[in-house]
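Hi support team,

I'm filing this because I wasn't sure whether my run with flavin-adenine dinucleotide finished correctly. The job status page said complete, but I'd like someone to confirm that the output block is well-formed before I use it downstream. Pasting the exact inputs I used:
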Amino acid sequence: MRSSDDGTIHIIGAGLAGLAAAVRLTQAGRAVVVHEATAHPGGRCRTYFDHVTQMEIDNGTHLLLSGNHAALGYLHTIGAAGLLEGPSNADFDFVDLHGGALWTVRLNNGPLPWWIFAKKRRVPQTRARDYLSLMRVMWTSQDRPLKELMACEGPLYKRLIEPLFLAALNLKPGNGSSKLAATLLRETLAIGGKACRPLIAPDGIGNALVAPAMRWLGERNVPVKLHRSLHSLIFANDRVSHLDFGDERLPLGPNDTVILAVPAYVAAMLVPGLETPSAFCSIVNAHYRVDPPAGFPRMIGVVNGTAEWIFALPGRVAVTVSDAGRLLELPREEVAQMIWRDVAAVMGLSPDTLPPWQLVRERRATFAASPEENAKRPGAETGWHNLVLAGDWTATSLPATIEGAIRSGNRAADLAVSHQTANKVAA
Ligand SMILES: Cc1cc2nc3c(=O)[nH]c(=O)nc-3n(C[C@H](O)[C@H](O)[C@H](O)COP(=O)(O)OP(=O)(O)OC[C@H]3O[C@@H](n4cnc5c(N)ncnc54)[C@H](O)[C@@H]3O)c2cc1C
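And here is everything the job wrote out:
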């Protein structure tokens, strides 16, 4: 039952943090309105029809892991759990473009990492004791660049740690935050393969995480207002008193609460004195309309190439390049060709026949996951009684990921409910 005498919770931003908050609050019977600046929900997680390649593509092929419990819980609630796909075991295929070696890292399911002791399961040319460096990272007490805790060279680093951490941190791992890496390790490798199965949405990440949430909210009459950009927050005493949308200044009632689920750089402009991460890293995704060879693995990590992860999808191939600043200033066609050469080499296709392609360059894909930027992440509470923050850039202890965004939305929703409850008791 919707209990609007508790007040309304206004969620600003319909990215995954905002949508997760809306879903959780609706489940808790709260009155919610979502305000989104653009024409589409989903924020940095989008699927759309691309007219150049004549196919649906994602702004970036998003990878989740089976240990992402908040994301999986959210998918379950919105009835979309079946839209992610992955292997039944945590197997990761790799290819080295220098020399063409192919290998598969096969984690065992339980927490005792016996895969490290099995030559056929661990990274070729590594010894079991090499993996001890990961323990040192896991129990780090201070946040330091990873290169101060582990050697950023050698087969284990080049063939496993760099590809995995680069994808998760979206920053050259040596410069990455040891604290964020430690959380990742504790939530994945330390639990075992059952938390590390890679999951992707073959029919589009927006079709799995965003469209079903919009349907779910629609069925419950939760308004998600598009083209509704918040211009400013107006404060009176210790509260937000009005939401200023430019053409409308919406007064807030005594029990109304605001969840600000916008990107870090927007939050920094809207909330006086708020410190947020201010350095960002880009991700480049290349999409090719081509049938992957039959039997080709769903995803493969590429070492010593421009391409880093290649995804073989129905009728198309998508490639992700993280921390891709070096590619932003090059001509688009040149980048598409460079990446295609790697794809062709890995898939045994012609490097000279570039299929229809599209390149998506997200300049501010994530905050830079360095110790300095990690230290700037604020918690969800603010100095204003009815204002709560959400977003992958808030202090979730995870890097900027879907899991972090959804956890932040859940936490903001819980805080908004407790603010309303406290208000009711005080009244
Ligand atoms: C290319 C790419 C690849 C990625 N790959 C992965 C991956 O493989 N795995 C993974 O876990 N994560 C990945 N991520 C990260 C993941 O997409 C983000 O962590 C997550 O989508 C962030 O959600 P959010 O809700 O915090 O922020 P956002 O998605 O940025 O949502 C913020 C919303 O606020 C809206 N907004 C902004 N200003 C206003 C305003 N003034 N008024 C109203 N609304 C406003 C925006 O339009 C947007 O919809 C990737 C990101 C990118 C860009």
